[in-house]
Each structure stands twice: as C-alpha cells, then as structure tokens.
Design brief:
The protein is of the alpha/beta class and 279 residues long. The chain is 44% helix and 23% strand. The longest helix has 19 residues. Strands 3-2-1-4-5-7-6 form a seven-stranded mixed sheet. The radius of gyration is 19 Å and the shape is globular. The chain has eleven helices and seven strands.
Amino acid sequence: MGEPNAEMAVMWNGPSAERWLALDANHDRALAPWGDAVLAAAAPGTGERVLDVGCGTGAMTRSLARRVAGGTAQGVDISAPLVARARAKAQAEGVGNVSFTVADAQVHDFPPASVDVAVSRFGVMFFADPVAAFANIGRALAPGGRLAFACWQDEAANDWLRIPAEVLAEHVGHTEPVPGAPGAVSLADPERVRAMLGAAGFAGVAVADAPAPMWLGADAAEAYERVATSGMTRTALEGKDPAAVSAALDALRAAIAGLVRGEGVSVPARAWLVTARRA
C-alpha cells in the first residue's frame, strides 16, 4: 500500500508549489482575514506550544510564534518547497521560537500531548482520511487542548470559485467534485465536519460562518494570473480541446476584468471557522 496522501505530496512538491510560491504574497493577503479569525478563535497565550497544520510559507506560524513568547510554534506541511520558503522568511524576520517540518499530518509521528493548540488556515481539506488525520492531530494535543481551523464553504458561497467555474463551463463543461473527496470544498458540509471531529475524539465542536472579501490581485492582470493558474482551473481545462481551452481562458480574462473596482479585485467569499477541544 502506498502513502495515504501520495497524490497530494506529488502535487505540492512539484508545479503546484512553484505556482503558489510565485504568488506567495498574493495568497497571504487574500487569506489574511481568515487567518486572523483562526488566531482569534485559538487565542494562543504566552508560553503555549502551537502546531500549524498545512502551514504553507508560514505566515500564520510566525504570527503564532510572536503571540506565544516563551512558547513554541511548529509549522507542518507536506510541501518541501513551501517549508523552505517558510524557514527563510522566519530567519529573515528574526522569529526564533518557530520551527518547520516537512510531513504529512495524517500520519506524522507527533510526540503525544506535545502541543496546547492546533490551528490551520485552509490546510486541512486535503486529507485522504480526515478522521484519521484529525485523530492523529488530536493525539499531539494535550488533554483539553484546543483546535481551530478555517475551511471553505461550498462553491455557491465563494465567488472566487463560482465565477471561474461558470465561465469555464460554458466552453469546457463542468465537472462536479466528488462529495467528500480531498479538495477545497471537501469540508463544506458543517454536519460532516461535526461528525468527523467527533469520530476523531474531539468535543465541543462549533462551526461558525466566516464571510470576508477574497482579494485576488492589485489589478485585472494579477487577479487573472492567480485564477488561471489555480488548481481548480487547471483541473477544469486538463485534457480539453485546445481551441476550447483558449476560448475559456479568454472568457475568464474578460470576466475578471469586469470585477475590477477601485484598487484591485475582490469578491465575496465564505469559510467555516471551526473550533473544538481534545476530549
């Protein structure tokens, strides 16, 4: 049997990582409202030990480290290129109480009860077996330890997903995501999230609506680059007729140009803010 998240490991140690790094600052700005919400919900305190799951290039891990003076912040991600960038940023900013590990949080051998708080900013929707993954994260938490993460609501609630999907579908068709399969909206059903975390050994699960504008770029060109190179767009266009792909991308560029308002491009977006504690 292979590794449970082997496909994600290949994806995030190859072209997906390269594309993410090329727009690193864009992603951090776009996701900042939900990162801030996760930090507020987790409420890390002085001296606490915090784990950031799916840390990417470490923006939230570094924020955590600053909030837990005398404590530690550890970022874990399956992507070696993103972790390398995270380490470089922490060193450049002089954040000393932070560390980063290349690992799959679903199976990584975390020391039991080694952290007080576990958090994630959109890093937990990609596990092959989310119950097993959250149970493993739970074992890393001390008894009563806190969990807080953000995950996306469904496509209809997120214009950054809905608009490109509708535009592309006119030219290449629309493929519905497999319910529950790893992906951006795999945790969009709050009842599934509650059941999943309960099965993984968590109690006091709360799922709150978290709306905010999704910032896509400083201008139409930057916003188009982000959307056109996203995993959703690449998946929608993969294997399709080249002429249809060209027409779809032209239509996408025009649609994004129509979203420019004042300074930059922002669209409505909604996530779930999930909190729980280790039972």
